[in-house]
Design a protein that fits this description.
alpha+beta; Nucleoside Triphosphate Pyrophosphohydrolase; Arc Repressor Mutant, subunit A; globular
Length: 244
């Protein structure tokens, strides 16, 4: 049986690739920031009224097109600063949304960034277009496909807090187990068994008993703890997270 030789694919040159890129269909790249905040035992998300005249009655995430000579991370930081006045927030790239008809202006691919902050520690310096915090449980509809982006990032956050102790940054330096459980219940959106919750955290062995009790509280004062970040850093490669 004769064996047919496979034709070699033509070798591309950088100049040829540049021409191909320039002549290809125009695709815009955007960034959308999903900023979650924790306040008064509630998980909230930062939303803004659309600045597009046709969609001014719709709330949206914080987003904009990426500038031609701008890195994605730099674009996310710029958008957040321009819209809110917030600066130097840790933003994590979560997912890319590229459905063909996701934006009425044409083909726009969006990269979603996410952050989780303590609202009391981050004051919004710009309030244009009714920028404000909204309880996560109240979000039913957003502009374009932003509800899909929001829901994806919310699911990501719920997984992330069980894989990484980022939730502790939302608590006071000294906190009770009641405060810790309230935080996780708000993010995970479910009630957790008190005994099982505490057992899991004590087994994790990253909590330090400070030998102090809560003061000026309406309920029975609980013990105060702090999170041992140094011990976590030494053991994070082998830590399997917490499964609720």
């Amino acid at each position: 049986m004769a064996i047919m030789e496979k034709e070699n694919s033509p070798i591309k040159t950088l100049k040829g690739l540049q021409s191909e890129v320039q002549n290809s269909n125009k695709i815009a790249l955007s960034v959308d920031c999903v900023i979650f905040g924790f306040d008064e035992n509630k998980l909230k998300v930062l939303l803004i009224r659309s600045d597009l005249k046709k969609y001014h009655n719709n709330y949206s995430l914080l987003g904009d097109l990426v500038k031609p000579h701008e890195d994605l991370d730099a674009s996310a930081s710029r958008i957040l600063k321009q819209r809110t006045g917030l600066n130097h927030l840790y933003l994590e790239q979560v997912h890319t949304f590229g459905e063909v008809n996701r934006h009425p202006a044409g083909r726009v691919v969006s990269v979603a960034y996410c952050s989780l902050i303590n609202i009391k520690h981050h004051h919004l310096n710009i309030l244009d277009n009714e920028l404000g915090w909204h309880e996560v449980s109240s979000i039913k509809e957003l502009l374009f496909d932003h509800i899909k982006i929001f829901e994806y990032c919310y699911s990501w956050l719920q997984r992330r807090v069980q894989e990484h102790p980022l939730g502790f940054s939302l608590l006071p330096e000294k906190f009770s187990l009641r405060e810790l459980q309230d935080l996780y219940e708000a993010i995970l959106n479910k009630k957790l068994d008190r005994r099982n919750f505490r057992k899991k955290f004590f087994k994790m062995d990253f909590l330090v008993d400070l030998g102090e009790d809560e003061k000026d509280v309406a309920h029975r004062p609980g013990k105060l703890y702090k999170f041992n970040y140094d011990k976590y850093e030494k053991n994070k490669k082998t830590w399997m997270g917490i499964d609720f």
